[in-house]
Amino acid sequence: xxxxLLRRDAVGGVTLSRYGDVALLVALTGPDVARxxxxxxxxxxxxxxxxxxxxxxx
Length: 58
Prior knowledge:
By secondary structure, the chain is mainly beta. The protein is built from no helices and six strands. It has strands spanning about 5-10, 15-20, 25-30, 35-40, 45-50, 55. A hairpin with a 5-residue loop joins strand 2 and strand 3 (about 25-30). It is flat, with a radius of gyration of 12 Å.
């Protein structure tokens, strides 16, 4: 189930959450347009997070 969810905060900022197969979060873009991406393995475990500066955590 792929999709996206928009959330608006109290001051009008919008956060976009993008979901991939099986409703796992694959990207999050905040009101400041900073985008984080999320990678999962075949067992649906979070394996890596990449921030807007392309730094990775695993």
